[in-house]
Structures are given as structure tokens and as C-alpha cells.
């Protein structure tokens, strides 16, 4: 130790490296220690601390990640909320002030009812009247809420749960298959917005839904929704849809039918029973299952509804009464102006008679149409006051909505001859005046009788009953075509008529409605009433907007002329071409058949009703020899027998008694060499008889003789479109009948 510096302190070491052998420093080995070594324990402790530190770091990292996720979610949610609020504020600012918001008026509905109060049709954009929630079948709102908005009565206009469910469903299916809109949102969209799928529209929809929920009760919102929502096939609202698909009111809808209606809301056009009944039924079953799941119906009700047959709806509104409804809608603006609110139109139509007429026309075409090559028919029936009691415009409204009764102009053929014979009577002829039925030539025209058969000397009554063309042509030349045209227009024909000789055979076109109307004066004693379909128009609150008061009809033919014409036309049914029309009532009429049987007519009447029937084809193609005495007479007979059931029998108006000396009247030659020599005057022996006295009856009623006494005439007759003669019609009494032969021979 001699060489060591005394000032240097030597510290002992245990774990340090060994000094060199030459060193004289103090050194203690591991085995020299008195206390056992705890190196291993220290190492273990260090390892445990390390593991704990790592575990802590892991825990702290997990919580840290969740914390960061929560933090950023909160941040993003906050910014998203701010952004959403900005979007709402932006699009909301573009909307009008909420103080100006108001529910738009529901498009007006026109409810058309028959004379006895039965529904004929609904017309308007909606196609049906509004029905109160308490009035409609309870199954309808239940079914709609079950499939469209099950929490309707608990949400505040927007359903977050339903929206979340829809989002999850769409994500799971990978497509947009479900919607989260509530009924309130759907109503808001239908009332105020366009169907655009934009953020702007969705934001506005939500705002409007909040406003609706604050402004109206849940029941009011549901009622508005059900009365305005589209159900397909042109039907808006439950009433229109119920009428369209089931032919009944929404008040009477069954559970199975309600499920069909509710199912339509997802895709009204695609799921319509008129388009795809099977798809409509499948969707309805889903609705029923949803109702059962929500315990709105029991198991028994579910089973019964599930077993109900599928709804089969026609592809279009059907029923001939729709021809009447269409006609009324055309006339309504002239009667009340623009329709601004729901109105009720009381019509003159008897719905039972309407159905009878439709069945007769349709049955005859179904049974004999193919065999006789006829595809269409029309029928019009008018009472003595001019009220249209039935009008069928075609075989099937669902197939064709064109109204052949009031819009189609066709040649009437011999059904026009009564106006020719009336013109002759007013020029001094009588039913007993005699003409020679023989082949004639008028210039280059040679009118021929049906089947080329001629009868020689015949009375005018016989000539009309047998529909002899040669005699009708002679009479037209004698009185002049202008006189015939004047008589036809005076009686009620409104179409333009060609003033030529061929008018004798009905070559100018007319509609079934106006031809039938022109026969009414024969049935009611000589008066021309205003033909009408509408009796009254009122609002739903009872305010009268229009009423047909029947305040006077003009006389267009004298009582004597009425008596003569009825004597002649009665023979058409008694012994002539319309014999199959005969039934318990005294009746008269005239058949008509045009060239190649393109048109077949029969117009006949009793003292109660005048009815005209037409059969033919829209393309004017020839039928297989049908005549006015075949299908038209059959349909007329069926209809008139049913229409007169239980009605007291009345005879035809007017009387006429022939004078014996008239039967010996000279007969002019039938040949007419020059058409320019056609107009003559009457002779004394064919002078009209004095007018018979008439017994006064209450206005608008028929007397025991069947004469119709109309209400007193007022200034309203001045509105008749065509000139109306005075009570003594037909011009002054002419003194002498001059035939074509008299003119040729110079016997003036």
C-alpha cells in the first residue's frame, strides 16, 4: 500500500469488472457476501413492472382511441349539426313566411246523381268526393297506418325510429327499397311540393310536416291525407278509389278491400288491380300481416281476409251511365260557370232504366253481333218534358268512350220520313190522300223501294207504314225540300240538312239524340220542350246554383197535325215494318235502314216516353242485312216494356177522323220527268179540318186522351235557337192540292 495515494478514496464494488491481478484494490466476490443475492428477484420485479407498464399503455391506448373516436364524433356531429342547420336555414329562407302558409283547396268534385238519388258518377281531378274519417270504413286508416306509418299517433311529424329502420333496411338490401317518410311528410309533399328528389324538397317537406303537426290534429292530418293521396287509375282519395276498384263507397269497404287500397300507396300505377290484380293481392297480404303483427286485427279476421278472392277491376271506368256523366260535364260550365267547389248535380236520368237500356244493347250485340256484323248500338229515351231518362252511347264504355248517342252523326234513312209526311200534311194532304207507288225517275235519280216491291195506289198512311220510298220522294217534290228542312228543324233536328230531293230518304246525317228529340212533339201533343239532362245543381251545403224550371214550351205542330201523324205512325207498329215493337201501350214510330244496311234505326213513342235506337258500325261498314225492324225494334221493345211497367196506360195524343169523300181523291202520276216542277199547292178537298177543342189539364200532365199540356210559355222560349212558329203552325191554309201531273198538264 506504500505506493497508493493516501488522498484517493477507494470504493468497494461488487458487480463491476475484476481488476487486474496485479491490482492491490479491495475486491469481494459473489460468494463472499453474507446476505444472499436478490438479483433474480430484482430482474423479476423489473419484468413485472415492464409488463404492467405495457398493459397500462395498452389500456390507456384503448381508452385513448375510444376517447379520440368519441371526441371526433362529437366534433363532426357538432359541425354536421351546424351544417344541417345552415342547409335548413338556407332552404327555409327561400320558402314563404309560415304565417302565409295555408292548406290549398282540394280540387272540386262533381257528384252526379240520378233522379232517384243514386250515384251516377263522380267527375273532377280527384274522381270522388271527400269523406270524413268517421264516415269511412275503419279498416282503411288502420291498414294505411300499419303499412305506411305505424307510429303516426306518437311522432311529431318526423319519425326518427322509422327513418333509422329504413336506412338500415336499405343498407342491408343494397338499394333504396324503403322510405322513412311519415304520413304527415307525404301529405306535405302532396299539398305543397313537387315530386323532385332533392335536398331542398326534403328539407322543405320536413319543415312543412312540423307546421302541419302544430296546426292540425292527427285525425285532421290523416283525413286530409286519405282524401287526397293518389291510388292509381286516375283515382285521388279513398272514395274515388273505392268506387273505381270495388264499385262501392269508402264507407262500405271490407278488410280485404282496405288492404288492397293501403297496398297501392307504395306504387299506385304498378300495383293497381286494373293493371296487375296478382301484384295487388300479394301486396295486400303484406298489409294484412302488418295489421296482425300490430294486433289491429285478430287471427280469424286475418284468415278470412286472406282467403278473399283477388280484386279484379276493369281497365277503365265502365257502365253506360258514364256517357251521361261525360255529357253533363260538357254542359256544366254553361250552366254554372267554372266549378270552384264540390257540387252535386241532380240529373233527369233514371239509373234503373239506364241499366236496362245498357243490358239490352250489350246483350243483342254479344248474341248477334258477330253473325250480323254489327259492333255498336245506341239508345236515347226522353219524356214529354224533354228530360232525358236514359242514354247509352255505345256497347261498352270501357272499350270506347265515344258517345254515339249525342256525337255520332249518321244517316237516319226512312226514320226521317215523318218530317216529309208532316210537311205534306201541312200543305193540305191527309193520311187518306192517295199516291201511286211505282218506279219513278227524278232527273237522273231513281229512288227504289226496299226489295224493289211496289204497291200501286196507296194512301199516305199506308205509304208511311210500309216505308215506301217512291211516295216519300213524290211528296218531297210536291212540297219542296226547303219545306221538309224547315219542318225537321222546327221539330228539333239541329244538324245541318241538305235541301235536296234525296232528303226524303234521310240522306242528311243526324245524331240519335236529336232525332229522338224531334219525335217528342208527336208524343206530347205538339210541343217542343228543351232537351235536358240536368235538373238542379247545388253545393254540398245546399245552395242552389242552377235549376231547370220548365217554364214553357213552344207549340211546333197543331193538334190536328199531331192526330194525323199519330194515326199514320201507329200503323207502322200495328201493320207495318215495326210490328215487333207492339206491347200493351198504344205506340207509334218509324223504322229506318240506310244503304247496304250500314245503319238501322227505330224511333218510337207512347204518350209517356219517346225512345230511339240505332245499330251499326263506327267505320260505317255494311252489316249483314239488319233493318230497323230487327235489332232496333227488339231493343226498343225490351226497354219500353220495362219502362212502362206499373204505369197507367194512356193513348196517343190528338184525334183525326177521315172524310169518306177523300178516299175517292184523284191520284197523280208517279212519274216526275223534271225536278224543277216539284212544288204545288193544295186543293179544297184536302183542306185541313177545324182544330179540335182541348180540355185543360194541370201543367205538365197528360189528360185521359194522352195529350200533354206543358207549363205556360214564358219569355224563355225566345232562347230557342231556331224560329218558332205561332200556335197555328204550318203556314196559312192552302186551298188546293196540285200534283206533279197537274203542273205538267197545266191544270192550275
Describe what this molecule looks like in 3D:
The chain has 748 residues and is of the alpha+beta class. The chain folds into three domains: 30 residues; 175 residues, Penicillin binding protein transpeptidase fold; 333 residues, DD-peptidase/beta-lactamase superfamily (Beta-lactamase, 3-Layer(aba) Sandwich). It is built from 20 helices and 14 strands. Strands 2-1-3-8-9 form a five-stranded mixed sheet, with helices on one face. Strands 5-4-12-11-10 form a five-stranded antiparallel sheet, with helices on both faces. The protein is elongated. The N and C termini lie far apart (192 Å). The C terminus is likely disordered.
Descriptive terms for the model:
disordered C terminus; five-stranded antiparallel beta sheet; alpha+beta; 3 domains; 20 helices; Penicillin binding protein transpeptidase fold; elongated; 748 residues; five-stranded mixed beta sheet
